[in-house]
Amino acid sequence: MTTDDPAAEAAALRHVVAGERAEAQAAVAPVAPVAPVAPAVTVVPRGLRPPAAFRRVALSILAVLGAFASLASLVLLAGTAQDAGRFDELQPWLLAINLAGVVVLVGLIGRKLYELFRDWRQQVPGSRMKARAVLTFSGLALVPILIVYFFSVNAINRGIDSWFSGNVGRGLDDALALSRAALSLRMREFSGRTGKLAEELGSAREFELPSQLDRYRRVVGAAELIVVGDHGHIVAASTDFSSEKLPGAPADEVLLEARQGRNYVSLDPGPSGGYRVMTATAFAPSAAHGARVLVASYEVPEQLGTLADGVQSAYSQYGQRIYQRPYLKSTFTLTLTIVLLISALGAVYGAFFWAARLVKPVQDLIAGTRAVGKGDLNTRLPLPSRDEMGFLVHSFNDMTKRLGRARADAEKSRAAVERERASLAVILARLSTGVVALEGDLTLRTANAAASDILGVDLEEWLGRKFEDVAVGQVLAEQFVSACRRHLNAGQTEWREQLTLKSDSGRRELMAACTALPGAEGAAPGLVIVFDDISTLLRAQRDAAWGEVARRLAHEIKNPLTPIQLSAERMRKRFLGQMNEKDAEVLERATHTIVQQVEAMKQMVNAFSDYARAPAMELVSFDLNQLVTEVAELYRAQGSGVSFKLFLDTNLGLVEADRGRLRQILNNLLTNALEALEGQEGGSVVVETHRTSIGGHPVLDLVVSDNGPGFQHEIIGQVFDPYVTSKPKGTGLGLAIVKKLVEEHGGRIEADNARGGGARVRILLPLDDAGRETLATATTRDARRPEPRRERA
Predict the structure, then answer these.
(1) Cα Rg, the chain, nearest whole Å
(2) Around Cβ 495, how many Cβ atoms within 10 Å?
(3) Residue 597, exposed/middle/buried by CB under 10 A (0-12, 13-18, 19+)?
(4) Spatial distance between the Cα atoms of 549 and 160, rounded to a whole number of angstroms
């Protein structure tokens, strides 16, 4: 992309760069709050992964089951305290279950303490708040539990001791004595009835005994009357028991005691419950049948028996409790200890649980703020509840939404700026015009590739540094910076000038224009300098002008030359024989001079014609190395005393070009070299051919150099201009014609002085059509490649 007006291009680039700077400032400016929008992605910090969630549910189920098991065991333990036998059976299992629960709780609490201590040392956010919450909750739970435990143990011990006071024991003894006295009274009463009845039966005959027994039994209220004779057989009996069997004979010891004259009385349990009083008394009947024994059984009243049983049972239990009093104290104390220990441990674990629940939203907020600080504005926190903490989390989420929207807008603005910058970079990269943007303090801000090529220094490596430092040691850049500094020192920020830069490789003409860039508020304005290398344009204009001059000169001069030469030869032929010797010598010398100068003029006119005309080329494929060898051999044969050295690339292959014009190029270059070496001893001409590449396309590199005086420094940039020469016999058209022929082939030619002395001309010719296009746009720097291996011809 080129332009004929660098000033206009500078103005356009100024507006582009100014717009880029304004957009960049807008991209980083604070963004006003915007309405919240629903986020496309929700990120919940510290979220549980599925395996962790499953583990948490499993632990919760196990905790609930463990709590139920511990509660059931405590209920059973409390229930068995009243049953010593059952307590002895279940006590080991119940204690084992409760102790296992205690161990599990201690393990869980220990793990929580370890995690809390580790987080405290690692300064995990929220760990100190969690520790304070655990201490507070644990203290609020443990202090009342310990107080209740202390007073409960004392109350249990005192309560159990109060059960066994002296009044209770004496009351039970009196009740027992009273019940026994009542039973003894009944027994004496029944024994007296039996004695009176035996006296009355003593006068009864034997056959009257059954009827009298029935009558007396009903009279005295006996349950059973039996008369036992000798040898323990029953003589008569009467009973009110509903049994078909006869009453059994009393025991021998009963009969023995009665026959010994003592009244027998005993208290025995009845067959259907209650008590029965048995009495026995011996009597002598009127008939001589021997001594008889009357055995009577009386039922103790049910109420009296029940009372007696109750008193006896209470007395027995009281005695057992007295024996078990230390055991009861230890049992109740152990039960209370386990209950309160499990309660205390559960309270501590609950303190950890609720502290974690309380601290978790705070930790989420800390993690969220850190994520936002790192640039993750998609962070969203879960709402823990609808309380103040939930309101705070909701405000945080709303803030991140707004920040995310603001950053998205800023990113869009930045992307737009980047697109504009990329577009500007593409434009600058494609420009053949050099563009350099400077800050207010002359710091190099932007430079395109064309600027680096024109000034001969890679400006990309110097971005951000002072422009004066870039030019140190660079001939072209120093002259360019010096010219720019001259205007800046004069306070000129808007200027336009054609600059001439000189170097060992020639002269460059630059058309430069400068304009100011708007700077930040209070800062010095920047500058943008646009410059174009118009050397080729000026050279093309000169070539066109000289071509027109050569065409006209060839036309105007060539026409009279032939008549002049013919007239001189006719004069010589006609008058030479008619003159004396002296005049003939003068005529011979004059006509010879005229003919010689006419021939010289013809040669110059032919050179003019060659420079001015542009006949169609005839492209053929041929071996350039062979052509170079042939031309060099012709010049060797002239015996000029100059040595010719050929370094030909054996991999060059065939070249597609106009063979005649390439021969003319070689002839002109070798002729110039021989003329430069005329009169110099040890003269040498070197011809080199190389196959290289530019932009991936093959290019012929032809170099002709000598060890002569070289090009003069003053004209090295003009050696290809017509009529520019430093040789006394030169016309100044040889290199101009060579340059024109090279350009007709789509190539490029360069001239400079070798480091060891002497002139050097380098020609680059494309080997295919793509190479012609690449070579037309490539820079001289890109064409410099390491020289291939040379072979001496």
Answers:
(1) 69
(2) 17
(3) middle
(4) 143
